[in-house]
Write a structure and sequence with these properties.
Helix content: 55-70%
Structural class: mainly alpha
Strand content: under 5%
Shape: globular
Number of strands: 0
Number of domains: 1
Order of helices and strands: HHHHHHHHHHH
Number of helices: 11
């Protein structure tokens, strides 16, 4: 999950609390989407069908807030310092997610999905690659689950892999682009994304790609990131808010409805679902980000909800999937249907939220504070 929070802003800039809250809502929708993956034979028959689009929403959010937080810091801030800030923000939770993934893989019996045993050496190799955000090649030893995942110990790290690429591109070249050039980039990548979706580049009639190096996933994932990240950056330039009441609740409802939407069309009309994906990512999501950035919380309760959702969104995204592996193994091994396991699914959601909050307070925030003090703050000594 692409991630940046209001902690990245300078003290003189207002915080976009609603954007933080919407990130949390989208993260919860991703968990629901992944739960229903356990009861689908293919993307065509999954009931909670469009949760994968949350990643595109995250990329737009990241682009918007990165532009807002950092565009006016250059050239005072160096590229090296920018990379330090982003690593400190993202990587501590990456490390924890990999460790949790390794633990759950061992609890599952250190076996691939087909039951083949995986040796300790390959598990350690997978950990090493995951820790350095290096994707595993399908069919090789470190690809320990046997289903082609880039990061088999914690699958959602694929989106962070592209987030890192987006950060690199921003620091090295995109930030230097004029607004006109950025508009051209958005249009070109938007057309590429729409073409990929409508003409079935994924072979499943959707744009839920990027999680593996197989097929067109690498190309599709890059296009998803580049369009959405650039669109977010474009929105942040010269942003002029409008007056809107209830923006958080309106945008939250829209996200829930869009991500819950059943499959559009069938196996013979995959282009229909491609059009839906394209409209959501290219048109609706930028509008939602604009509206949320324009709105404000008007009471303490709404502010507290947005803050909590924003705070736990990134840890929740990072830590939830290792437990999904255990959930999938249990459901597939027993042949249980959703009506039989829904209480467990609810406990899985609540438990992951609690775990994410604990990880945030007991690990992520203290580690980031220490790293920031160690590598970002200038030390002064008196004589």
């Amino acid at each position: 999950m692409p991630q940046i929070s209001s902690s990245a802003f300078s003290d003189s800039k207002p915080h976009y609390q609603l954007l933080d809250g919407l990130r949390g809502v989208a993260a919860l929708m991703i968990i629901c989407y992944h739960i229903f993956e356990g009861f689908a034979k293919s993307p065509l028959d999954q009931h909670f069908n469009h949760g994968y689009l949350a990643v595109d929403f995250f990329f737009i959010l990241s682009g918007f807030v990165i532009g807002y937080a950092y565009d006016d810091r250059w050239p005072k801030m160096t590229v090296r310092n920018f990379f330090k800030r982003r690593l400190i923000r993202l990587h501590p939770m990456v490390v924890l997610g990999v460790v949790i993934g390794a633990i759950t893989f061992c609890l599952q019996g250190c076996v691939k999905w087909d039951g083949t045993h995986v040796g300790v050496v390959m598990v350690m190799a997978a950990m090493l690659l995951n820790l350095f955000m290096l994707p595993a090649v399908p069919g090789t030893g470190p690809e320990i689950r046997g289903n082609g995942e880039m990061f088999p110990l914690n699958g959602p790290n694929w989106s962070l892999f592209f987030e890192y690429i987006g950060n690199i591109l921003y620091a090295l070249c995109i930030r230097r682009m004029s607004t006109t050039a950025l508009k051209v980039l958005v249009v070109v990548t938007g057309l590429a994304l729409a073409s990929f979706a409508v003409f079935n580049g994924s072979e499943y009639g959707h744009i839920g790609v990027g999680w593996t190096l197989a097929g067109n996933n690498l190309i599709g994932g890059f296009v998803r990131m580049l369009f959405s990240y650039s669109m977010g950056l474009l929105l942040s330039r010269g942003f002029k808010p409008i007056k809107i009441k209830g923006a958080f609740w309106i945008c939250s409802l829209a996200i829930v409805v869009l991500l819950c939407m059943p499959r559009i069309g069938d196996a013979t009309t995959m282009w229909m679902n491609g059009i839906y994906d394209s409209v959501c990512v290219i048109i609706i999501f930028p509008i939602l980000v604009f509206l949320a950035a324009s709105g404000h919380t008007t009471d303490k309760k709404s502010s507290a909800i947005c803050k909590f959702l924003g705070d736990v969104s990134y840890p929740l995204y990072v830590v939830h999937y290792p437990f999904m592996y255990l959930f999938f193994a249990w459901v597939w091994g027993t042949g249980l249907a959703f009506p039989q396991v829904w209480p467990v699914a609810i406990c899985l959601i609540v438990g992951n939220v609690i775990l994410a909050f604990l990880c945030l307070k007991l690990y992520d925030e203290p580690v980031r504070k220490w790293l920031s003090k160690r590598f970002l703050e200038r030390k002064t000594t008196g004589k």
